[in-house]
Structure formats: structure tokens, C-alpha cells
């Protein structure tokens, strides 16, 4: 039987067969102002010739799956002829869900997987549990790890010991990639150019030019300097979707101080925004969110566990999710934790090669595990016992 692994994130779906490679596909629908009546789904984004003022229709709100109509259309597209040509009668599925998911959402998902798509068996599991499984498989001598998963809607801190999550230690910060992009849109709109409708473009700007400062106040002072002394300043060329399909950052040595380029390119000049936006992951209170930053949340999580476990947790911190790809993120987090954790305890923060698909890789290992058949719920089980059997088996 073929096993499909789907890490169903709020921004991208990471999907592929357990015998194959992963595909990262937008988990949403789009409408563009140039073709207002037509709706594009998932990777059809590439077909939109002019993605300015692109309107996103997201199945997730605040990290939870609430718009089933959109999610069904995305899944129909992924499972259908264009993408994976899933033969439901011969397929099993591993699908991720957020921590502390609502029972009503879980029941809807069970119904859709078993009654509509009619998968032969299914396993619903937290993405963090898949990541932990992948980590323990690659480091068989480790007993504990602490996962920092910073995604589109939230950042979760989740401790795992011997492969099972420690529920009491899970912490959530309501800061994710969506908030960072929205904040960058507001700053640019206030200072330079109205871009509140340009989520797609500004998201690209954020990924291309933002970084995590190692010394916030020092970088802030540099960003206020004039001329070439301001080493933080960069010029970003916005796409016009005819000659320039995708925006790009001009090299530091090509920045024209007057800001007037002969080519007629539309330029965004970015200085302290480059590091002030990712700083919200460390200090959400900067924009009025009264919550801990990631380093404090890690310490709070670890201190809720037994003392024997604490050194193991600090020594095995794994970063996953799109936000951890900001340059300097790992180094800053390790430095801040070093100042918060007792000196005799070693601190080690690991950034995997691809933190976005790390959970999917864990799901692939799980699907090929000899114990996999014991963990799933089959369609016969579900038809006989309903949601009860899923609740019993999936709480892992």
C-alpha cells in the first residue's frame, strides 16, 4: 500500500509519497486583480502573469483549519490528476495537525479523509512529533530534544523525551511569518510606498533582505548613519511583472545614494526594517504583543520539566519552520539562551539543512517504520467505531 505524507501547514503544504521526494506547495487559493473572476489553487500561482495585488484565500486562521471549502479544493488539486494521482483504495495517509487542535476540527478531518476521500488508513499527528521522530532516528543516543517550530501563524516550543511530547512543557507565542510580513507592509506603507495590498511581493522582500541582528542597538545606530557608512541600507528592485518577474536586492556596492537609478526601476530603500521586523520573534512587546520572546519561552518550557531533563533539553534544541531561515537566527538564539541558562549547562541550537521540510522527512521515516501499521486507524476501524477510535490512537 502506498503512503502519502502531508505536512499540512497554514502557508505551505509539504506533500509526497513515502517512497518519493517532497513537494512544497502553497496551501491556499489566489485571486489576482488582472483576472478577478478566476480563482487559482495551490501551485497554479505560477500561471498568474501579473501577481500584483494578489488576494490570498487561506484555509487556516490563527493556525487552525477553519475554511474547509478552500482546504478541500486544495486537497482535490493535490490528490487529483494534475499532481499525485492518488488511488485512495490503495493509499494510506500521514497528515499533520497543530498542537491542541479543536475536537470539532479533528472530527471533520476524520470524516473527510475516511468518508469523502476514502483512504484505506490514516494517521493524524503533530508536525513536531514527526520532526522529533526524524531527530531521534538521526541521533539514536539522545533521549530528549526541544523543538522550536516557528511557522506562518505561531511559534511553538515543544519538549520531547523518548519520542513522546511533554504536554506541560509546550509553549506557544502568537508571532509567525504572517505577522512579520504584515508588519513590514505597514512600515513600508508608512515610510515610502503604499503596499498594503502587495502581500505576495512584500513576503518575497522579507525573505530576501531581512536578517536577525546580533546586537540590536548597534545595528540601529549604523542604520541612522549617512552615506556609505550605513552598511545596513539596501535597495530592493520591485518587480513590474513584464521585464522584471521577481524582485531582487541590489548588491551593497551598487547602491546609488541619491536613490535615483537611470533604468527607471521602482526601488524600495530598506534600512532598520531589515532587522527590526524579525526582532519581533525575540521581543513581541516591540509591537504591543504582551508575550515572551522565543528565548524566554524556551527557558520557561524547560523549567517546567524535571531537573534531570533540563541539561538534555538545552543541549538538543532543533529549529524548524520558515522563520528560522533568517540569517543570524540560530546564532542570536544560542547567544541569548547562553545568557539565560546557568553557566554549567551546555547550550546547543541546531539548524537542519531544510527546516521547512524537516517534519515531512520525519513523516517519511514514520511511514516506512515497521510499527506504522499499529499506529494508523483503518477505514474498517473507523466505520465500526467512529471518531472514538481516532481519539484513542492519535493522541501521540
Task: List the SSEs and their pairings.
Blueprint lengths: L1 E7 L3 E6 L5 E4 L2 E3 L8 E2 L13 E3 L2 E2 L2 E2 L2 H12 L11 E7 L5 H14 L4 E6 H12 L5 E7 L4 E7 L2 E2 L5 E3 L3 H15 L7 H11 L6 H8 L10 E4 L10 E2 L17 E4 L2 H4 L17 H10 L6 H5 L2 E4 L8 H12 L8 E2 L7 H10 L4 H4 L1 E2 H7 L1 H8 L2
Parallel strand pairs: 1-9, 9-10, 11-18, 18-19
Antiparallel strand pairs: 1-2, 2-3, 4-5, 4-6, 7-8, 10-20, 11-12, 12-13, 12-14, 15-16, 15-17
Can you give a write-up of this model?
Keywords: Cytoplasm, Cytoskeleton, Nucleus. Its main location: cytoplasm. InterPro entries: Actin, ATPase_NBD. One of its GO terms (cellular component) is cytoskeleton. This protein has helices spanning 68-79, 103-116, 127-138, 177-191, 199-209, 216-223, 273-276, 294-303, 310-314, 329-340, 358-367, 372-375, 379-385, 387-394; strands at residues 2-8, 12-17, 23-26, 29-31, 40-41, 55-57, 60-61, 64-65, 91-97, 121-126, 144-150, 155-161, 164-165, 171-173, 234-237, 248-249, 267-270, 317-320, 349-350, 377-378. With 396 residues, it is an alpha+beta fold. The protein folds into three domains: 2-130 and 356-394, 2-Layer Sandwich (Nucleotidyltransferase, domain 5); 140-175 and 288-350, Nucleotidyltransferase, domain 5; 177-278, ATPase, substrate binding domain, subdomain 4 (Actin, Chain A, domain 4, Alpha-Beta Complex). The strands form five sheets. A six-stranded mixed β-sheet has the order 3-2-1-9-10-20, sandwiched between helices. Strands 11, 12, 13, 14, 18 and 19 form a six-stranded mixed β-sheet that branches. A three-stranded antiparallel β-sheet has the order 5-4-6. Helix 4 (177-191) crosses helix 5 and helix 8 packs across helix 10. The longest helix is centred in the middle third of the chain and has 15 residues, at 177-191. The model has no long low-confidence stretch (mean pLDDT 89).
